[in-house]
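Dear colleague,

Thank you for sharing your sequence with our group. We've completed the structure prediction you requested, and as agreed, I am returning the results in plain text so they can be pasted directly into your records. Please verify that the sequence below matches your submission; if there's any discrepancy, let me know and we will rerun it promptly.
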Amino acid sequence: MICVETTAKMSQTQKSGSPFPAWPRAILSAALSLLSAASSHAGVAADSKLATFQKFVNGEISIREATVYRKITERGKVINQGWWRFSWQKDGQTWYVQLLIPDKQEPSKLVPQEGNCVCGASLKEFWVVSDKDVHVAAKGQASGSCPDEYGSLYRNLMFSALSLGVPRRKDVLSVSEVRWEGVRFTTAVPTNFVLNRVTGSGAITGKLNVAPDGLPRSAEYPSLGNFMGGSVTYQHEQQSAIPVIFTVQDSKWAMRYEFLSLELGSNELQHADGFLPGDFAKAKLNRHFTYWTNDRPYSLTDRGFAPAFGLTPVGAPLRTTGTLIMLLLSVVSATFLALWYWRQRKKQ
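Please find the predicted structure tokens below.
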């Protein structure tokens, strides 16, 4: 609008016979046009960076592979640290996560942890593969299975990296959506825990603080129930919309995440179903294979599938510490009564 109005006034001045030459006005008009266009382009670029950040948080951007380092400190003292790599494809329908450790001979090099365990998902199933076992569960029947329970840590780490510090529930099988309204976000968080299990959740609303260049510089969110509110700070490189480092701070801990590598884009998947256990399994090793259904887990034997005794069926409650203690006391009591009865019979 500035350019249009300025040009209109200049035309009227020229018609009235201004003593000044027309070319300075033409240069000014062109400069204002360029300035307006540049401002408009900068606004679009800033909006684009924020949109990319938000899409990344919601798992809408494919990741060929990322390597992440996390350090947790309490009052400046390191209490935990870890490394992992992951891939995220087809809006999270297929992915994998593998824990890493520094190589003992060459600490700057990261290698898989002992056992070479990888957790992942194909388009149809969740799975866990290691040097000893393979566990597979159909996505609609995976709750309570080994890929669900054992893979919870792996998913937690992956979801933490995807979240970029924005809080959400990470005890789920699929990434939970964060709703955005400009720089404000609404997200579900765990609000109550029993024996490290989430027993309640609720929604909170937080806010990103975005710089004029369109890059989020920090965020804050409130407490709810037993969930602690906190803040996040971001460090970007080369104006990238995805921060290379972000630090989550609450009243107790500081959790620093760093993308040691981050390659965005789609992978050339070897299978139509996405990532499969065989992509990460050394063929020469013999593994115990278990398939989890909504009834009970089944193991593959020389004669086909047979019930996997000793494993908790899908949907059955896991034994808690209290249950195990009661079971142990029952065994001790039964043993004591049996010995007492045997001695009484011997006296007779």
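Summary note from our side: Confidence is low (pLDDT under 50) at residues 1-21, 23-42, 313-334.

Kind regards,
the structure core
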